[in-house]
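Aim 2 progress. For Ribose operon repressor, the working sequence is reproduced below.
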Amino acid sequence: MATMKDIARVAGVSTSTVSHVINKTRYVSDEIAERVNKVAQELNYAPSALARSLKMNRTRTIGMLVTTSTNPFFGEVVKGVERSCYQQGYNLILCNTEGDNERMKSSINTLLQKRVDGLILMCSTLEGERIDVFDRYPDIPVVVMDWGPMLFASDKIQDNSLRGGYMATQYLIECGHKTIGCITGPLIRHQAQMRYEGYKRAVLEAGLEINPHWIVESNFECEGGLEAFAQMQKRGPLPSALFVCNDMMAMGVIHAANKVGVAIPEQLSVMGYDDIHIAQFMLPALTTIHQPKYRLGQAAVETLLSKLENQHREPQVVQLEPTLVVRESVKRLS
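Predicted structure tokens for this construct:
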């Protein structure tokens, strides 16, 4: 493999001149620059990323940890992260924790040993965790996405789940529904709790009843929605509408309802949350709360890079606002 010394010998210039031409660190005459670049091309010279990273103390690499899930929400967020990294000239190393706490800590250790410039963490197991390894790498910026309180300093990117839950329930009320149930995510998770709080606030403001038979906690997966619907049905008559706190569980609810002959939305209106790409292709197409997933990923990268440029700024929270997407799964009552 050709080196700068080889280029300098063939081009008849000093090694430092070759370095200035290739790295654009000092003015070199057009004639010499053209000669150096031509020789570099003929010798198939490729700059050493390792050497450059050691010199600059940057690898231009970001590590990201994400919990595996069948939920395409995560894939859509990762797409935003990956695209933003590419546009900014950074590489992305993606690690899957599979929800395992020890695997998560091992992956963080590995990424830090590979000298990534920063970390983006999107792991449900992080909430309330103290991760000692960050004490050994105090200069590595960390951005946490979409989860609750952390026991270490970091920037945070999240959607306004309280507002989203309120907005979803308020729309059902505006459509004339007075009996509204809620299938929540795991309430130990901050975002699930906030969506549920938004639901409760809208129902109580409207002077409606919160019937405990119509509240079921589940797991944010399709199977969880299916099981939650079956559980609610066993308790007695169903409400006229359900706020289901993510689209995957809403898909499970619609599937379960169809199996037992409950027509959506004629007999039961269903409101989702996230607006994953396939929500528009469900039957009926899902009315839902749009969470700006691509923008969440983009904001995580932008926040991480801003921290790299200003290591001493205080940790910040970037909150993105949800919007309502009206489709066909909610019936407007007369």
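The chain has three domains: 4-47, 61-160+293-322, 161-290. This observation will guide construct design in the next reporting period.
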